[in-house]
Amino acid sequence: MSKDLYDEVAELLITKRSAVALTGAGASAESGVPTFRGSGGLWTIFRPEDIATPEAFFRDPENVWRWYKWRLEKLFEAKPNPGHYALAEMERLNILRCVITQNVDELHRVAGSKCLIELHGSIRRMRCVSCGYTERIDDLSRLETLPPKCPRCGSIMRPDVVLFGEPIPMIEWTRALSETYKAKIMLVVGTSGSVYPAALLPHIAKERGSIIIEINPEETELSDIADIIIRAKSGEALPKILERIKKLL
Ligand code: BV8
Ligand code: ZN
User: Which end of the chain has the least Cβ crowding within 10 Å, N or C?
Assistant: First the structure.
């Protein structure tokens, strides 16, 4: 039987046993979490410069919180999809070292990924703008009044995410670079490659001679550096790759 792309990727992943995944909003699309760009994306309704920036937040925290509350309402119904679970299983099989995600929905964590670098934080957490008190948002009762107040010092709370114009926290960025340096393969899953510095990671991997495998139904800003392109949904492609890996192990 002739080998297809999925066999080729499965063989590479087993031979190298040193892959890292960089995921974006597309990895959560099949969980019902809207992407940012592309058809039906969030930014078609909102412009990031208007909403996800510190200036927008401090100008009108209630308005920005209304957007995050709307996203959290959708997120509370969301479950990891087969793509999230396939990545967690590849880690358990020692095929994948780590997941570096731009997503703030924690679905990789729920799916069981242990080595997980959340570059842009999590909308399931909020922190005080003054004293740094941090709290998990496990239900929406704390968001009855917006913006929520810090129980410790009374200041306002903000989503614990990296807004546009804010730096990626040093610890996460250093960990992401270290995993990128160590990897021999980078799976680039469900990202348009349009947000920096996250979009630099595949370029760094490429320069170090890693194999870049893009899994995305559409062309992206990273397609031209990809060595292998699987034009498919991650929720379909990743379980297929996992199935081929298990046949070869
Ligand atoms: C920084 C958290 C500097 C918040 C996010 C002007 C002013 C200020 C900064 C800039 C500027 N111009 C450029 C910049 C830099 C800026 C940037 O990159 N802007 C872009 C828009 C050009 N970056 C920053 O601001 C970063 N910080 O530069 O700080 C600095 C440095 C030192 C000291 C001080 C300051 C911070 C960037 C982080 C922003 N925060 N999220 C929140 O979520 O509310 S980014 C946001 O975009 C999400 O995290 C999202 O993940 C991320 C990236 O988007 P993608 O994940 O790629 O998602 P997208 O929708 O674009 O694409 C989805 C893809 O999935 C598509 O390709 C689609 O085809 C595919 N897909 C769809 N369905 C599926 C699928 N794939 C597979 N399967 C499917 N089923
Ligand atoms: Zn406080």
Answer: N
Ligand nearest to the CA of 127: 2
Q: How far is CA 181 from the centre of its chain?
A: 19
pTM, full prediction:
0.96
Q: Mean pLDDT in each 10-residue stretch from start to end of the chain (249 residues)?
A: 88 97 97 80 68 94 93 94 98 98 98 98 98 95 96 98 97 98 98 96 98 97 98 98 97
Pocket test residue of 31, 119, 189, 196 for ligand 1, highest count of atoms within 8 A of CB: 196
- 102: which 2 tokens? 């731009």
Ordered by start, the domain boundaries in the chain are: 1-32+80-120+168-249, 34-77+123-161
Ligand 2 (ion): residues with CB under 5 Å are 128, 130-131, 133, 150, 152-153, 155
- CATH class of the domain at 1-32+80-120+168-249: alpha beta
CATH of domain 34-77+123-161: 3.30.1600.10
Q: Where are the beta strands (DSSP E) in 35-156?
A: 96-101, 116-118, 121-128, 134-136
CA separation, residue 146 to residues 58, 119, 157, 172 (Å):
13, 26, 9, 29
* Residue nearest ligand 1's atom 44 by CA: 52
